[in-house]
Design a protein that fits this description.
The chain has helices at 46-49, 94-104, 170-182, 193-198, 201-206, 217-234, 236-240, 246-263, 270-306, 316-339, 342-356, 368-392, 395-423, 425-463, 469-481, 485-497, and strands at residues 2-5, 7-11, 26-27, 31-41, 53-58, 64-70, 76-81, 117-132, 140-152, 156-165. It is α+β, with helices and mostly antiparallel strands and 501 residues long. The protein is elongated and about 100 Å long.
Amino acid sequence: MQQVEAELKFAIRADDPLPVLGELVEVGPVREQHLRAVYLDTQALHLARHRITLRRREGGADAGWHLKSPRPDGTRLEVHAPLEDGPGRLRVPQTLHEQVLATLGHALPEGPDGTLLPVAVLVTHRLELDLLDPARPEVVLAQLCDDRVTALPAGETWRELEVELVDGDEAFLGHVADIFERQGLLLADDPSKLSRALGDRPERARRGEGPAAGGPAADVVLAYLAAQVAVIVAREEDVRTDVPDAVHKTRVATRRLRSALRTFRRLLDRDVVDPLREEIRWFATALGAPRDAEVMRDHLLASVDDLPHDERVGPVRERVSTDLGQRHAAAHQALVQVLDSDRYRELVEQLMDLLAAPPWRGRAHQRADQVLPALVLGAVDRARTQARAAERAEGRQQLHQLHEARKKAKAVRYACEALAPALGEEAAEAAEVWEQVTETLGSVQDAALAAEWLREVAAAAQEAGEPGYTYGVLAAQAVTRAQAVQDGEEALARALEHGWP
């Protein structure tokens, strides 16, 4: 459904009485409504910057999805869709998504940067009444809404009056504005409730700026969480069709998401986020199986191709390609079944709810530069404890401890990446230092995994009566690569000595 919206908004103090319109109108009975609207936009607020609003509103006579776009004459075109039309409760219906694309065109990025996610929630207590034509009381000229608004999660509250034309004309709206002005009511500074809730975020986004170091810690963390959810949502169909690198990028996003919820858990209600972390881990495990098979296939095929010709005995390349290709295909088929499951759909709903109404607690609304570095330092301390455990271990136990140290190092790296847009160069440099740890220890883990995969492929080759010589050569190389342990330990030591935070 489409309609043209023409309305005016007026600022009014919390305790002021409603203005009197005198003989201009008759006033209908008051209707009380409780509304909750979730507004969606890209991370860089492309819609808001083009004066477009997209919301899912519950409560009131027009509950549903609403897309409002500006028209040249100053009015707005409003397109509606039923609440249940989206593929998920907070996922945009296809018809409205197509309308957004048609309106913005190339101004809307592709991929995660163009993904529409919750950016604000407005809870409104509304008293609504009809303004009737005195000569024809059956004609509703406009509706007057007395709104008391709360913007979540910050909790800012305000009151405003909204007059929206129904069967009246622009002249009538002008008379109302004149009468209100004579009684001390002026047009609201912000053109919409969303505009007030977002504050300077659209302008900062236009300048390429994210949350500020002096702003709330919650804003910095939420921006990072939203970036990871955007990847998961945007890459879903690519994962389903096994587009190159889609599974890998989605898997990394799940890792970053779980890590951030762990590192910054003092700012969040753990009764909410701890179960969510477990669901994310379930999905990450499903992503890991096809990704690991793909990585090992490419790794081992490259190792075979690097061998001298006289060391390639038997159909080794064909065996590796076929065996690991089959494992990848089976794992990807299982992943598609996960994407089709109710459990996965519920996970996406929970992620969208997390962005719409983050369960902040503690010091979440204090300055980012005063709160977040200490939480990163906690992640560094956990990495240091794990490094000491690896120093004391030997053999396979040492490889296990180094693998755990790599995971702790990733947590520090991801936390530094999360803070870098707000806290600047020091955080970015620290992220690079910890990335070196994850990369060097990653080669150790890859070597250990390659040895395990080789044993399984070699066993299948032996059962088929194929020569095993080349598999022995490859296994010996994997053991040699495992000596990168020293490089990993040195990188970890350098990172632990780094001065930030």
